[in-house]
Specification:
Blueprint: H1 4-21, E1 30-34, H2 40-48, E2 53-56, H3 59-68, E3 74-77, H4 86-89, E4 95-99, H5 102-115, E5 120-124, H6 138-149, E6 155-160, H7 173-190, E7 196-198, H8 205-210, E8 215-218, H9 220-223
Parallel strand pairs: 1-2, 1-8, 2-3, 3-4, 4-5, 5-6, 6-7
Length: about 240
Amino acid sequence: MASISESYELIKSQLQCAAKKSGRNPEEIELIAVSKTWPIETVSELVQCGHKIFGENKAQELEVKSPSLSSSLRWHFIGHLQKNKVRKVLPLAETIHSVDSLDIAERINTIAHDLGLFPKIYIQVNHESESTKFGFSPEELSQSFDSLLQLDRIEIEGLMIIPSFDPDPEKVRPEFAALRDLRDKLEQTNDIKLPGLSMGMSNDFHIAIEEGSTSVRIGSSIFGKRKVIKPNLQE
């Protein structure tokens, strides 16, 4: 089994190859190490390799890890964000990748006013309108975009997607391409720049990069498979 440092170097090499294959500068692509469920000791191993950008999907974990590790680290929130967790997350995460409704965007804007912050956000899109996934449908986003632009404390970096899982990553290429096309349409219609596309995970990040991703979220390919902790029924 490869060590975290070996896995990390391999992922960086693969990212660079995917970027060069697409005629892109690897420096333009942000690698977010998804540290959810992993203990501080494990995350520290990757910090020692020089990596500084981490992603968490639960407010509770972010609250524990952020103050326990180097203050130079940059934290991204990548999970579904509940309204009652916004005040806890905003001071710790520089970017929220999962703004999936106008309501949560407005809540973030209100709390950002209270805290004197200007958080960066990605708008989560649910292309297939799957009931099991969060996010705006393309139609909903087009209808709500003017309202999102009126929120004065948030900076919209771009769009985010969690694609359908398929063992063959080529099968999800159309979802990545559709997100890029939607981004381009919003830019043209609203005369703005949305530079970011947060898309691509361990199984498909090389395809996402070929389709224009600027931010990939990699967990298991760096840290290994997460252990499922079963409850102790005797307690």
